[in-house]
Automatic annotation (TrEMBL):
InterPro entries: HAD-like_sf (IPR036412), HAD-SF_hydro_IG_5-nucl (IPR008380), HAD_sf (IPR023214), Pur_nucleotidase (IPR016695). Gene3D superfamilies: HAD superfamily/HAD-like (3.40.50.1000). This is HAD-IG family 5'-nucleotidase. Residues 473-496 are annotated as: Disordered. Belongs to the 5'(3')-deoxyribonucleotidase family. Pfam families: 5_nucleotid (PF05761). It comes from the Bacteria. Keywords: Hydrolase, Magnesium, Metal-binding.
Length: 496
């Protein structure tokens, strides 16, 4: 009997790094912001940016003319707080592209600055943009570096000092609660409706999974956000509170996963929420404040790979849960949808680029052999051909002409490839021809990744997600760079 299953479009797929049997998962924990609740990124980050700017204006900084630039920064970049640079690094930590402030660094300047530097995120110097919430602070920091270089900011001050001031300004805006108050008052302006998420969680709950909400947001903010995101789409009479077995707010992730903090019961009086110290097993339909993952595991009677945690923050949600608790992990990357669509739209150009690169590599290989032949001939050693020297030189000149023509053809295609999705930084997951530092983090810490929680609808709570076979440069039938012995036939595979 045929079913009614419809495969999702590629951009809504669930991508698997490590095989995950959803039937073995007994509990699923969810972050809230940018996981269960998706924001209109530009609207939120523009407003956050404006609050930082207001704080600096109050200190008489000349920033009134600055404006949020959405394309200047993407998730996964790294701020070099010592040098005032925005960087994109590859999976090995080598810097592939850099801006000083908002200005692109030339090849020689970038090479001078970073040729001997490997980005190690454990060092205080580097700030990794883990989440979409980082975009506003990184944007204004880059703009302020320009002003600092022009001598327009109060001093003396270094690039690290400047970053700390930006961070404090953003923290002050969040602490004041004005931004969140605006969002609560007008959620439609800031929140993207996602009706399918409620159904995806209902499927999981009715399949026997315990559902957990573990968020750093406070109770007063979580209630209206979860109400707006879920209640209109749940069965009549049901609210989001009944969907979750455990609700923990102000969780202080990543410390929630690594330390033991006091647990408080949230007593919602209808006005201001009160906190009451609590110990013992968690009560159903009761929200809690703080606590720890160890306490939660004890309450659930579950641990390790029986629990899946779903979040958008690379470090606070998936890195720590994987490293410390060995929970299974899912990363939400909303930008993945644009990324997959951009890659698909570029496929025909990419095929042409790959085809011409094969020709380029063959010509380069022949050029190398001709140069070696000339070297041996002039130094009188090793085996040599009978081809006259003037013919060797003539062939080398012809190859050089062909390569120059090829480079003129390849250049625009390569530039277009480097600007997919973003004119400054290109694709989120690529750095040149390699994986980006973000992609390496995703690969290392996220068992699965997808663009939104509602994509679980396409998979069902019973799916067995299998990772693809890992590839290496020497694997057959996979692009892997220039082989040691380039084939003269571009269509042939390795010899048997």
């Amino acid at each position: 009997m045929s079913g009614h299953f419809t495969a999702p479009p590629p951009e809504r797929g669930i991508y698997c790094n490590r095989t995950l049997n959803m039937r073995a998962i007994k509990a699923i924990g969810y972050d809230m912001d940018y996981t269960l609740v998706h924001y209109r990124v530009e609207a939120w980050e523009r407003r956050a940016y404006e609050y930082i700017r207001e704080g600096l204006l109050a200190q008489n900084w000349p920033v009134g003319h600055l404006a949020f630039e959405p394309e200047l920064v993407i998730r996964g970049l790294i701020i070099d707080t010592e040098k005032g640079n925005l960087l994109k690094a590859n999976r090995f930590g080598f810097v592939k592209k850099a801006l000083h402030g908002t200005r692109p660094m030339g090849f020689e300047a970038q090479r001078t600055e970073y040729a001997r530097t490997i980005v190690d995120l454990s060092e205080r110097r580097w700030m990794f943009l883990n989440t979409l919430f980082s975009l506003s602070e990184a944007c204004i920091y880059a703009q302020l570096v320009d002003l600092l270089d022009e001598g327009k900011l109060p001093g003396p001050m270094g690039y690290s000092d400047l970053y700390e001031i930006v961070r404090r300004s953003l923290d002050a805006a969040h602490m004041a609660g004005r931004l969140k108050a605006e969002i609560i008052a007008d959620p439609e302006r800031y929140v993207l409706p996602e009706p399918e998420t409620a159904l995806a969680l209902l499927d999981q709950r009715n399949a026997g999974k315990k559902l957990l909400l573990i968020t750093n947001s406070e109770w007063a903010y979580s209630v209206p956000m979860m109400h707006a995101a879920f209640d209109p789409y749940l069965p009549s009479g049901m609210t989001w509170r009944e969907l979750f077995d455990v609700v923990i707010v102000s969780a202080r992730k990543p410390e929630f996963f690594t330390t033991r903090s006091p647990l408080f019961e949230v007593v919602d009086t209808g006005g201001e929420a009160l906190l009451r110290p609590y110990s013992g097993l968690l009560k159903p339909r009761t929200p809690y404040f703080g606590g720890s993952a160890v306490e939660l595991e004890r309450h659930l009677g579950l641990s390790g790979d029986e629990i899946l945690y779903v979040g958008d923050h690379m470090f606070g949600d998936v890195h720590v849960t994987k490293n410390v608790l060995r929970w299974r992990t899912a990363l939400i990357l909303r930008e993945l949808e644009d990324e997959v669509r951009a890659i698909a739209a570029f496929r025909s150009t990419e095929a042409r680029l790959a085809e011409r690169m094969v020709v380029k590599e063959q010509l380069e290989a022949e050029s190398c052999q001709l140069r070696l032949e000339l070297q041996r001939r002039r130094a009188h050693y090793g085996p040599r051909s009978q081809m006259p020297e003037d013919e060797l030189l003539s062939r080398l000149t012809a190859i050089r002409t062909q390569l120059e023509a090829l480079d003129a053809e390849l250049g625009p295609m390569a530039r277009a490839a480097s600007e997919l999705s973003n004119p400054h930084w290109g694709l989120l997951t690529r750095a040149g021809n390699d994986k980006s530092h973000l992609a390496r983090q995703v690969e290392r810490y996220a068992d699965i990744y997808t663009s939104r929680v509602s994509n679980f609808l396409f998979a069902s709570p019973f799916v067995y997600l299998r990772s693809p076979r890992g590839s290496l440069p020497h694997d057959p039938n996979l692009p892997g760079g220039t082989p040691v012995f380039p084939s003269t036939d571009a269509t042939s595979g390795p010899n048997p």
